[in-house]
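Quality-control log, excerpt.
Job 1 of 2 completed; input and output follow.
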Amino acid sequence: MTERPIKAYRLRPASRAIALATAAAFAAAQPAASQGLPLIRDAEIEQLLRDYTNPVLKIAGLSQQNVQVVIINDRSFNAFVMDGRRIFVNSGALMDAATPNHIIGVLAHETGHISGGHLSKMREQLALAQTQSIIAMLVGLGAMALAARSGPDSGMGQVGAAALSAPQEIIKRNLLSYVRTQEEAADRAGVKFLNATGQSAKGMHDTFKKFAEQILFQRNSIDPYVQSHPMPSERVAALQELARSSPYWDKKDPPELQARHDLMRAKLFGFMERPDTVARRYPLTDQSLPARYARAISAYRHANVRGAVAQVDALIQAQPNNPYFYELKGQALLETGHPAEAIAPLRRAVQTAPHPALIQIMLAQALIATNDAKHAEEAVALLRTALVKEPEAAEGYAQLAMAYGKKGDYAQADLASAQAAFARGDNKTARELAARAKTRFPVGSPGWVKADDIVVVKPTAAKKN
């Protein structure tokens, strides 16, 4: 499991109302966005989330839209959408969701936002609100200018001030009312998708009910017009009535899916919590597979690599076809300075994982780290295959540059280094490296063209991308 920061989402003046008007989830995401969103990449967790979302996306007519679930390293319970291609979910939501159904319900709700085109409609509402705000401002300024000409006793100054403030409040309330309508529509769509896929909406209902109780406990008096969601009791009551009418209300998650969910949660706790916290949550008396998984991860993360490897070997013995146990063993060995030993388990993980691109990058890293030149060619092949699936993986391009360097192919090494810098958002370095790569390639060759594409990217376009 790795972390990868991405650039912050900047709020233009016209879209600042989003922070006010969209769901509380978005507001919670703003602190992370101000410094870049720290993302978690993990083959096992991402595969589980694909299995959660694929049936819902198919029913929603979004299976061809390549919607991805992106994991943010944030301990709070949160999920939101910011475009039509990605659903963001906090690691805290995955860790706190006791069953697959709890998180599937949340993902179904967010899918409802995408299928309903709520983001594009919100942008239209924001544009309208901005126009209304400008008109109100001009009216107010006009009244104040008239007051200046009429004298201080005319009363026009107070009229101008009122013309400036009152419409702003009305515009804000209209936006919030619109967002509440969107949230209710996403609830209905989410339940519809769950029913169509034969899944219960109970997890979705229980999750929102939990938040409603927290809100009511924290605040006794809430103006329903300044809430980004409907009033908790109203929303939960409507959702409960809708969800309970489903024939699948009492349907449980399949045991094998629950088992994978428990392993996912254990993995997150093992990687993200302190050893004492992991020990309390998964004491030695708990010999379940998830508990042993969490303890093994915690052991390797805190300098007990040999003990951790022995624990992972026991996990492999229990589930010899689980690719992610082999991945963990390889990662532990690689990150503690034993790349040669990491190769075999990572090979096995690549062979058996359904979507192995991230593991292929790790295997290539192990091959390169051995400093054995004969591994360079295999590393190049692995990385090229992986980067087709992960074209924005800066680490993949960086490893590719090192692999080409060991082969003595400095033109490709410079090009890969430029691509790594571009993926990180360091466009100045990317252009410099690409310009050097161009001098090493024959003019018009595929490598020269790729390097030229980076050189000619305008800074404004690169920032936009």
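Job 2 of 2 completed; input and output follow.
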Amino acid sequence: MKSHYLLERIGSAFLTLFILASATFFLLRLAPGGPFDGEKALPAAVRENIEQRYGLNDPLPEQFVSWLKDISRGDLRESFQHEGTAVTDIIGETLPISLQLGGAATLLALVLGIPLGIAAGARHGTWLDRSVLIFTAAGTSLPSYLVASVLILIFALHLQWLPVALWEDSGAIVLPAITLGLRPLALITQVVRASVFECLGADWVRTALAKGLAESRVLGKHVLRNALIPLISLLAPITAGLVTGSFLVEMTFQLPGLGKYFVSAVLNRDYPLVMGVTLTYGMILLAFTLTADLLCAWADPRIRLDAEGGKS
């Protein structure tokens, strides 16, 4: 893999992160309301002192440049909502919980989704394939709050096998991980099923089978690698989305993850915390996307040649 391909992808990732951070910064400042607006208005002198302390009465361009200087030193400032607490400390305490939840959901989706997709694609049109299609349709259409409610009702309240919520038990991750992982599980199953079915219809697969090679060998050695290439490109946004998009699940199960703090920060106009979480989520998403691009280019050189202006 040529170095300029990697540098191009890294440069594009940094530019995307800068645009994301800039847009978030100015949209937050221009949105109605402020971090210190409440039901009871603050005296003018008190409000002016607070805004002076946090630099909120400076022109927006000056505030933006000042913020850029701070983050270049690794300083994400202090939270408005959690006075005296650095944003880096909040992220450091809560991000591992979101990562554990996202990792568990990703593992669940991969461990179940790939075998289900292979089985359904290899047995196209059978009862197994139709059952998998029904399952994936339900998995992609059911909202997460409904899935969470059903799981809590059955496994927590009725059977009492697992805790209802909170992060105080070793089994507390099970129901949130299933809730969060159901949709990506269905998507992965659909992608793998379609890819396997398409590969099995290719001429080179028919030739291999006609030569007497066992179907299991053709499926495992030849079909699977080609069928998983679309999954690699899909896996990056899915995995990043599981880590960064667990707001509703964390709120439903009362988990002290970063998503819960992010929702609270947005509602309370906690500028430093919103910006810090946005940067963190943006870097996670771009890191997964970059990794997927490199893996796809490694698995299929035609992708790299297209990006470099060559011919596939």
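Post-run check on job 2. Residues 87-122 form the longest helix (36 residues).
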